Amino acid sequence: MSPQSRSRLRILSGFIIFFSIIFIARLYYLQVIHGKEFRAEAEKQYVSTIPNLFDRGTVYFKQKDDRLVTGATINSGYVVSITPKLLTDKEASYKAIAAIIDVAHDAFIEKANKNDDPYEEIAKRVPEEKANALMELGIPGVKIFRETWRYYPGGQLAAQVLGFVGFGNQGNELIGRYGLESYYNDILARRADDLYINFFAELFTNLSDTLFDSDKEQEADLVLTIEPTVQGYLEKELQNVMDEWHSDQSGGIIMDPKTGAIYAMAVSPSFDLNEYNKVKDGTIFADPLVQDVYEMGSIVKPLTMAAGLDAGVVTANTTYDDLGRMTMDKKTFSNYDGRGRGPGTTMQDVLNQSLNTGVAFVVSKLGNERFADYLQNKFHLGDETGIDLPGERQGLMTNLTSKRNIEYATASFGQGIALTPINMVTALSVLGNGGVTITPHVVDEIRYTNGKVKKFTPNPPEQVIKPETSEEITRMLVTVVDKALLGGTVRIPEYSIAAKTGTAQIARPRELGGGYYDDRYMHTFFGYFPAYDPKFIVFLYTYNPRNNATFASHTLTMPFIRTAKFLLHYYSITPDRVKDVLGKPVAP
């Protein structure tokens, strides 16, 4: 073969290889990326279809073994309609149809008698097998259309996190409403394109769109950090709290305190996402864990104590004379029981017995300005956390700009400042994770339809308290659980748990005179474990519990302990406490 012939052969081979690559790329684009849409088009050959069928990206929960479970998807079925003037025998038509699907007789006859109306729907979301059975009857005037809609397989599971799809303010477009459906609406939404294209004609056209499809960079599915079994467990525990204490509301967050990944996030009462239109009070759709602020009470005390430890003004063994009450700026506050513990009261005693005067003492050692700096600029109380959910609200921290000492004293035990639950649990995570800030999040991955995957990228961590401060406050909170929480009766021998309760008075609205209710409280509880290398932080609250609910230690301790035991078992966490020769656990 001559050199010229070999050169031509190479050129020809190059063209063949080039077009083969284009062909394979186009085939992948049509069968994989657009496979769902073309399958839908194929179905149009057999049944009438509503134009521009609704489509939307999928939202997945992630199980502990990384398997995905669908949280929000598209379901399909059929609409059955009639053209009244074409029904030759209305009663016979009704009997034939009613033998297959549920149709009320009077409603059917009323629609069937509208002879001037060319279209009357008699049933929606009819399963495929029943739609096929109706088509086989061949009743004149009966038409069947394919339809699609947003479907949530878990029903109520993670309702406030997911949100739902409904009509926007204009009333003519389905969009995400609340939760992730709203926050990520732009990438979950799908274009209402007319997808009918001859397959082989499409195969060799729009090649540039195949290789450089910019539109697909705007369409994606979501993979969440939410673990469905953990989410379900938390929702059950919150419902138990509601049933037992008849609270106005209860909520909880389970999070990794090192990464900010949220395993569960729930509120009770809740609602079924597939039947949101049946909800009478629309305020239930919003997520109070992100959008509402509360005075948190004594779970703020560990932050105050950590500030004192970090600044070096107190240690766990520092003492003061507890008189049971203090007066500042002509205002008096006291410990929860009004009693003083006397001289020699240690900072460990302050946390064990939740003494308001003790954390006010820490503030007096820190100074108001430095105390406010720790709460606002280090723990970032009152700031937005940046969580990927809509409507996050800033806290109410104006008391920390006051010139009065009383405002700083009350803030030290969680009164007079109001925070979102997500802000609170994010700040508390700093205590157990070595002293660094985190970014809470519920989305782990964004999977674009063009094949690209975007992993969650946190904000750069900031070291806000020293690692040794984190270890010391953790040791103090472990002592609270081991010796003080319900008298030390709920400690888990094989695991170290750091925790603290909180009970705060609920503020009375200004129109009712301001101040605080004497008989309404916000109960809170947080804990992280295993304490010295925590995998989980759990935050619980219940708002205005009844049935003689006095303190959070009564309402929330057992739900927390049950949740901790469940998580430790479910994730097979190795015990962090060894045993001595007598078989008794020894703290790390």
UniProtKB/TrEMBL annotation:
<dbReference type="GO" id="GO:0071555">
    <property type="term" value="P:cell wall organization"/>
</dbReference>
<dbReference type="InterPro" id="IPR036138">
    <property type="entry name" value="PBP_dimer_sf"/>
</dbReference>
<dbReference type="Pfam" id="PF00905">
    <property type="entry name" value="Transpeptidase"/>
</dbReference>
<dbReference type="GO" id="GO:0008658">
    <property type="term" value="F:penicillin binding"/>
</dbReference>
<feature type="domain" description="Penicillin-binding protein dimerisation">
    <location>
        <begin position="75"/>
        <end position="188"/>
    </location>
</feature>
<keyword id="KW-1133">Transmembrane helix</keyword>
<protein>
    <recommendedName>
        <fullName>Penicillin-binding protein transpeptidase domain-containing protein</fullName>
    </recommendedName>
</protein>
<dbReference type="InterPro" id="IPR050515">
    <property type="entry name" value="Beta-lactam/transpept"/>
</dbReference>
<dbReference type="InterPro" id="IPR012338">
    <property type="entry name" value="Beta-lactam/transpept-like"/>
</dbReference>
<dbReference type="Pfam" id="PF03717">
    <property type="entry name" value="PBP_dimer"/>
</dbReference>
<dbReference type="InterPro" id="IPR001460">
    <property type="entry name" value="PCN-bd_Tpept"/>
</dbReference>
<dbReference type="InterPro" id="IPR005311">
    <property type="entry name" value="PBP_dimer"/>
</dbReference>
<keyword id="KW-0812">Transmembrane</keyword>
<dbReference type="GO" id="GO:0005886">
    <property type="term" value="C:plasma membrane"/>
</dbReference>
<keyword id="KW-0472">Membrane</keyword>
<feature type="transmembrane region" description="Helical">
    <location>
        <begin position="12"/>
        <end position="29"/>
    </location>
</feature>
<feature type="domain" description="Penicillin-binding protein transpeptidase">
    <location>
        <begin position="253"/>
        <end position="546"/>
    </location>
</feature>
